Amino acid sequence: MAELVPFTVPTESDKTLLVWELSSGPTAEALHRSLFTVFSQFGLLYSVRVFPNAAVARPGFYAIIKFYSARDAHRAQKACDQKQLFQKSPVKVHLSTRHKAVQHQALALNSSRCQELANYYFGFNGWSKRIIELQDLSDLEEGAHEDIVAPHEKQSLTFFCALEVVLPSYECRSPGVGVAREPLDKLEEGPLSFLRKRKTTQKLAIQKALSDAFQKLLIVVLGQ
């Protein structure tokens, strides 16, 4: 059976693993590294979060691990439950049992997460982006018409970006748009700060457009 993997933050219970009976010996940071190493063997991870046990419980830690793929989460659960993994005692690994009636609004992945997911399934050379338009829509004070002006002459920096994500192997193109706005302090001095903000705002508009383009795509993962 095929599985659909969207470019959204995974919140489904069948993509979330609960891991407990983690030893109190290592630090939370060391446990995070060990858990990531073990569970990333089963598929791309969205997050690994480690928490100390409640005060009423015995010393130790538990973890919440989120996969992008429910199939990967199921395989990891079956392979790791009641196994020692990286410690002397076995750990318990269960799928989340959050009530299925709970509905969560799908949150778009940011551009870096989208690229990570695309690289994992399509390969680094399996997709590309093409910027169609990057336009400066900044608010100018009356009488200011030059592209680069002193910081005090602009109320805010605004950039619009239109681009498309291209998947050549699938003959697929997905358009996306993004707008980024950065307010300017009229008391700021020097053009260097203004130019840095201009570059940052351009980059943010591109990132938003890239995320928007990926939201229109679904990854279809076929069964073995």
Describe the structure.
It is built from 4 helices and 10 strands. A hairpin with a 4-residue loop joins strand 8 and strand 9 (172-183). It is α+β, with helices and mostly antiparallel strands and 224 residues long. The chain has a 4-stranded antiparallel β-sheet, with helices on one face. Strands 6, 7, 8 and 9 form a 4-stranded antiparallel β-sheet that branches.
Task: Describe the structure concisely for a colleague.
The chain has 224 residues and is an alpha+beta fold. The protein has helices spanning 28-39, 70-80, 111-122, 191-215; strands at 3-6, 16-22, 45-52, 61-67, 92-95, 128-136, 139-140, 154-167, 172-183, 218-221. The strands form 3 sheets. A 4-stranded antiparallel β-sheet has the order 3-4-2-5, with helices on one face. Strands 6, 7, 8 and 9 form a 4-stranded antiparallel β-sheet that branches. A two-stranded antiparallel ribbon has the order 1-10.
Could you name the key traits of this structure?
single chain; about 220 residues; alpha+beta; four-stranded antiparallel beta sheet; 4 helices; 10 strands; globular
